[in-house]
Amino acid sequence: MQAALDHLVVAAADLDAGAAWLEAHLGVPLTPGGRHAAMGTHNRLLKLGPRLYLELIAIDPEAPAPGRPRWFGLDDAALKEKIAERPRLIHWVARCDDIAAAAAACPEPPGDILDLARGDFRWRITVPVDGRLPGDGLIPSLIQWRSPVHPADKLPDRGCGLMKLEGFHPEPKRIQGSLSALGLDKALALFPAEAEEMPGLAAYLRTPDGLREID
């Protein structure tokens, strides 16, 4: 099984305010994305390389609530409190050619496989029934693109790139087991965290203004 890092997920309480904060932090503009009707969310995007991008996502206040918990834990009260302060890097998504086989190979079940669309893009993605973040956000959601063009292919190059993605968890061996099963050992640098510390991610991005961290 061989998956690859597809995109980073940064959550915001409000899309416009979150975009303003992130653009000021990185020194580059984000590109409008669109709406996800099935999840009641909307996003903006930033190219980080070939077939690699950052997604800023937020609950869409104009969309009706979906009939199931939203993806990426966006309905979770603790996460809502956390992102009320500022946007946070909460998760990552890994691309694969056979999502059913990848999901079956993962020691921790990644959730239901949903068929979704936004504009010209079509994809299949794993979403847990309760909407939680797999592995506290450190085990990636799985995605299989069904449209011929990847979203990053259509994004303008702002001169940004991902230098390193780090993860911190009190049970690193458990997380590592799932990453190894998916062939993602080198995609995430995993470190042990103290039991009382919250699991989390940190990404180091190359920007025109120098190195920037997002956590």
Whole-number radius of gyration? 16 Å
Describe the global form.
globular
Q: What share of the residues does DSSP label as strand, in percent?
A: 35-45%
Mean pLDDT, to the nearest integer, reads 95
Biggest beta sheet summary: 8 strands, mixed
Number of H/I helices: 4
Task: Give the second-level CATH assignment, the architecture.
Answer: Roll
Give the N-to-C terminal Cα separation.
Answer: 28 Å
Helix content: 10-25%
Tell me the CATH superfamily.
2,3-Dihydroxybiphenyl 1,2-Dioxygenase, domain 1
What letter string, H or E per element, gives the SSE order? EHEEEHEHEEEEHEEE
Count of the separate structural domains: 1
Q: Which parts are unreliable, with pLDDT below 50 for 5 consecutive residues or more? A: none
Number of strands: 12
Biggest sheet: strands side by side, in what order?
2-3-4-1-5-8-7-6
Find the structural class using helix and strand composition: alpha+beta
CATH class: Alpha Beta
